[in-house]
């Protein structure tokens, strides 16, 4: 099975733009999906497919994929965006699901 | 509105079998991959496995020898059994709905619905 690599922590000033990245071989075949998780809560899907958002997710969240790297961008970060963000994919050879280690986003 | 709810014991003794059930309310079992995911305290998410609505399964190789996921379509439930547990299996366990497709030259996979999670502690 493949792995997904994320930076452990990222910070952004309130109202600025931040990009969180995820790298792995499976991303050459699969779109990454992205999950936001706040303390004590279940993960919430924020981005899937080719930059698609569930209806309840604000449009300041966007995603992109290039080669073996997927990115989650928050344009105009808000205080409520402070959370852990985790990417996920699936290995095309054995269909095993993989998660990145997660990135803790701090909004300053 | 479709919802998932985990249920089962919050405390399991070492060497015993952990058993959890996820009840699907407000929706159908078909088309989706019904999954279990866990998160040890302070750590990241770990995929345990899934069962497709047809009954086929796929498990995390690191847990495969101890895991069984089953589906009860009559009750709209799916279940997890994890045998020979140790303290390292202490975690919040989530059930989730997985979706797969192929679109624009890429495969598509995501979990669009999650249960609230249930903490299972392994301790004597």
Structure overview:
- The complex is a heterodimer of chains A (108) and B (124).
- In chain A, strands 1, 3, 4, 7, 8 and 9 form a 6-stranded mixed beta sheet that branches. Chain A has a 3-stranded antiparallel beta sheet with strand order 2-6-5, with no helix packed on it.
- By secondary structure, chain A is an all-beta fold.
- The mean pLDDT of chain A is 96.
- Chain A has no helices and 9 strands.
- Chain A is globular and about 40 Å long.
- In chain A, a hairpin with a 6-residue loop joins strand 7 (83-90) and strand 8 (97-99).
- With 124 residues, chain B is an all-beta fold.
- Helix content of chain B is 0%, strand content 57%.
- Chain B has no helices and 11 strands.
- In chain B, strands 2, 4, 5, 6, 9, 10 and 11 form a 7-stranded mixed beta sheet that branches.
- In chain B, a hairpin with a 4-residue loop joins strand 5 and strand 6 (57-59).
- The N and C termini of chain B lie far apart (39 Å).
- Classes of the chains: A mainly beta (108), B mainly beta (124).
- Chain A binds chain B through residues 1, 29-31, 33, 35, 42-45, 48-50, 54, 65, 86, 88-90, 92, 94-102, and chain B through 35, 37, 44-47, 50, 58, 60-61, 94, 98, 100, 103-104, 106-112, 114-117.
Number of helices of chain A: 0
Amount of helix of chain A: under 10%
Estimated share of beta-strand residues of chain A: 35-45%
Structural class of chain B: mainly beta
User: What pattern of helices and strands is seen along the backbone of chain A?
Assistant: EEEEEEEEE
Radius of gyration of chain A: 13 Å
Strand content of the residues of chain B, in percent? over 45%
Largest chain-chain contact?
A: A-B, 29 and 26 residues
Number of strands of chain B: 11
Tally of DSSP β-strands of chain A: 9
Major beta-sheet overview of chain A? 6 strands, mixed
Low-confidence stretches of chain A: none
Q: How widely separated are the two ends of chain A?
A: 37 Å
C-alpha end-to-end distance of chain B = 39 Å
Helix count, DSSP H or I runs of 4 or more residues of chain B: 0
Q: Which overall shape of chain A is indicated by the principal axes computed on the Cα atoms?
A: globular
- What value does the average pLDDT of chain A take? 96
**Shape descriptor of chain B:** globular
Decide which structural class fits the backbone of chain A. mainly beta
User: What would you call the quaternary organization?
Assistant: heterodimer
């Amino acid at each position: 099975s493949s792995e997904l690599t994320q930076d452990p922590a990222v910070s952004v000033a309130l109202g600025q733009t931040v990009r969180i990245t995820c790298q792995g071989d499976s991303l050459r075949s699969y779109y990454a999906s992205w999950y936001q998780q706040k303390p004590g809560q279940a993960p919430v899907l924020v981005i899937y497919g080719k930059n698609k958002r569930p209806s309840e997710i604000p449009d300041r969240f966007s995603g992109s994929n290039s080669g073996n790297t997927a990115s989650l961008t928050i344009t105009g970060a808000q205080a409520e965006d402070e959370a852990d963000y985790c990417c996920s994919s699936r290995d095309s050879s054995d269909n095993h699901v993989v998660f990145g280690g997660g990135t803790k986003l701090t909004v300053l | 509105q479709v919802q998932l709810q985990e249920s089962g014991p919050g405390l399991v003794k070492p060497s015993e079998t952990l058993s959890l059930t996820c009840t699907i309310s407000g929706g159908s079992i078909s088309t989706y991959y019904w999954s279990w995911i866990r998160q040890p305290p302070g750590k990241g998410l770990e995929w345990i496995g899934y069962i497709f609505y047809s009954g086929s399964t796929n498990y995390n190789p690191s847990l495969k020898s101890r895991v069984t996921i089953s589906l009860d379509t009559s009750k709209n439930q799916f279940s997890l059994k994890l045998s020979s547990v140790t303290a390292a299996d202490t975690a919040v366990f989530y059930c989730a709905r997985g979706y797969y497709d192929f679109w624009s030259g890429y495969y598509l996979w995501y979990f669009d619905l999650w249960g609230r999670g249930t903490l299972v502690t392994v301790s004597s």
